[in-house]
Amino acid sequence: MAEEKKGGFFSRLVSGLTKTRDNIVSGMDSIFHGFTHIDDDFYEELEEVMIMGDLGVQATYDILDDLKEKVKERHIKEPADCREILIESIKEQMDVGETAYEFEDKTSVVMMIGVNGVGKTTTIGKLAGKLRAQNKKVVLAAADTFRAAAGEQLKEWANRSQAELIGGQEGSDPASVVFDAVAAAKARHADVLLCDTAGRLHNKKNLMEELRKMNRIIDREFPEAYRETLVVLDATTGQNALQQAKDFNDVADITGIVLTKMDGTAKGGIAVAIQAELGIPVKYIGVGETIDDLQKFDADAFVNALFAKEDEN
Ligand SMILES: Nc1nc2c(ncn2[C@@H]2O[C@H](COP(=O)(O)OP(=O)(O)OP(=O)(O)O)[C@@H](O)[C@H]2O)c(=O)[nH]1
Ligand SMILES: [Mg+2]
Question: What single string gives the DSSP state of each residue in the chain?
Answer without folding.
Answer: -HHHHHHHHHHHHHHHTHHHIIIIIHHHHHHHHH-SS-SHHHHHHHHHHHHHTTSHHHHHHHHHHHHHHHHHHTT---GGGHHHHHHHHHHHHH---GGGGGGGGSSEEEEEE-STTSSHHHHHHHHHHHHHHTT--EEEEEE--SSHHHHHHHHHHHHHHT-EEE---TTS-HHHHHHHHHHHHHHTT-SEEEEEE-S--SSHHHHHHHHHHHHHHHHHH-TTSEEEEEEEEEGGGTHHHHHHHHHHHHHS---EEEEE-TTSS--THHHHHHHHHH---EEEEE-SSSTT-EEE--HHHHHHHHT--GGG-
